[in-house]
């Protein structure tokens, strides 16, 4: 019987789209493309998630990468991008229902600590009973050790836990540890609800 529901963040509880994030800033099309490539498509962006560098260190690298006129924009984007993410209200409504039904809710995400702390310290943090973040652990899904951290920290039984992620490689890794798993897109919310109801 299911007791624990574990949510990834990007494209599960929110729409992770660098273009849509950058649309919140006044940028010409060329500058928009340059910042997307210089920041969100850089190797440093992945290194933030992996806990190899901090957002502060990455910001300095990104600022060195752009013309002087865009340095301030880079700083602004890096300081404020989490608040410009489109969160999925229907998913949070469902999480609220799950909590009312007695399920424990956890977060397991490949993310830097800036975004992790933004979620934790906002009212969204009230939906979760615990978290494991890649930057903090210096481990990235689908490495089995990051799932094992979650299981051990919150004393979860894998067979009583459902892991929801948008990437099949990550849900496959959860299954190998004996967890139930669901590969998610926002248009599959109804399917997810049916799955939970039947398990």
Automatic annotation (TrEMBL):
Gene3D superfamilies: HAD superfamily/HAD-like, Putative phosphatase, domain 2. Keywords: Hydrolase. SUPFAM superfamilies: HAD-like. The keyword Hydrolase applies. GO terms for molecular function: hydrolase activity. PANTHER family: ALPHA-D-GLUCOSE 1-PHOSPHATE PHOSPHATASE, FLAVIN MONONUCLEOTIDE HYDROLASE 1, CHLOROPLATIC. This is Predicted hydrolase (HAD superfamily). It comes from Lactobacillus gasseri (strain ATCC 33323 / DSM 20243 / BCRC 14619 / CIP 102991 / JCM 1131 / KCTC 3163 / NCIMB 11718 / NCTC 13722 / AM63).
């Amino acid at each position: 019987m299911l007791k624990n529901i574990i949510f990834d963040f990007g494209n599960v509880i929110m729409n992770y789209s660098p273009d849509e994030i950058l649309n919140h800033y006044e940028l010409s099309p060329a500058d928009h493309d340059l910042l997307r490539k210089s920041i969100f498509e850089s190797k440093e962006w992945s290194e933030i998630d992996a806990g190899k560098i901090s957002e502060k260190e990455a910001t300095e690298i990104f600022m060195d990468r752009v013309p002087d006129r865009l340095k301030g924009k880079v700083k602004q984007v890096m300081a404020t991008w989490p608040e410009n993410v489109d969160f999925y209200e229907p998913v949070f409504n469902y999480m609220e229902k799950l909590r009312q039904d007695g399920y424990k809710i956890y977060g397991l995400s490949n993310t830097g600590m800036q975004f992790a702390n933004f979620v934790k310290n906002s009212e969204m943090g009230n939906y979760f009973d615990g978290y494991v973040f890649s930057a903090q652990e210096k481990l990235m899904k689908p490495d089995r050790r990051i799932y094992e951290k979650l299981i051990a920290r919150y004393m979860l039984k894998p067979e009583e836990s459902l892991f929801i992620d948008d990437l099949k490689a990550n849900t496959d890794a959860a299954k190998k540890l004996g967890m139930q798993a669901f590969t998610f897109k926002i248009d599959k919310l109804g399917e997810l609800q049916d799955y939970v109801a039947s398990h």
